[in-house]
Amino acid sequence: MLFFKAFVIGLSIAAPVGPIGVLCIRRTLVFGRRVGFVSGLGAATADAFYGAVAAFGLTVLFRFFVQNARPLHLIGGALLLLIGLRTMLARRDVAVSADGPARSGGLLPAYASTFFLTITNPMTIISFAAVFAVIAPARGLDYGSAAVTVAGVFLGSAAWWLVLSTGVGAVRQAAGVRLLAWVSRLSGGVIAGFGAAQLVERT
Predict the structure, then answer these.
(1) Helix, strand or coil for residue 49?
(2) Side-chain-side CA neighbours of residue 187 (13 Å)
(3) Per-residue pLDDT of the chain (203 residues; tens, 9 = 90+)
């Protein structure tokens, strides 16, 4: 039951469409399902990390991320703005391939970038701490239960990214190159908008 609750938590935190979701959608459209899914796994790993901090009661790390929320938000916002602008300014004829996925920079950069972007949102750790305070017993979680909880969070988040990348990949097969190119640019504008809003919010 604890694993199922954690799975639902991971799924519900990953599901709302934000900048990471838009970025994964864009990468799936341009580079294919595998890159989109691996990008989502980066976010799922960051969710699991924050879940581990909350579940294991790592107060030192918890305080670090909360106390440094503003600079982390600024870094994340600047990166989102940069990624969005690069996407918008990319040449349309090389942004999307008609014959198959375009060449990406590799799976590791796709994974690492979304992990870093997600980890720069310390409000996630507060969400996990609040939820775990409700589902955990009064005495807290032992190490075994905490590990099960973190695994559930990761798999729940990963499940969402698998569903999203698979669904967007199916849409990619039915869409034309011109439409995909414009969607790619539009997603760049949305990502840049998220980044700009994040910078304005924290300045």
Answers:
(1) helix
(2) 24
(3) 778 888 988 898 888 778 888 999 988 888 888 999 999 999 999 988 888 887 777 767 777 877 777 888 888 888 888 988 887 776 554 445 544 455 556 789 899 999 998 888 766 767 766 666 666 555 556 778 888 888 998 999 999 999 999 998 888 777 666 677 777 778 888 888 888 887 887 65
Burial of 78: CB neighbours in 10 Å, binned 0-12, 13-18, 19+: middle
Q: Which two tokens stand for residue 63?
A: 């305080």
Distance CA 10, CA 51 (A): 9
Distance CA 154, CA 9 (A): 9
Range of the domain at 127: 2-202
Count up the domains in the chain and report the number: 1
Q: Which of 161, 151, 193 is nearest to 34 (CA)?
A: 161
| Gap between the Cα atoms of 124 and 46, Å rounded | 9
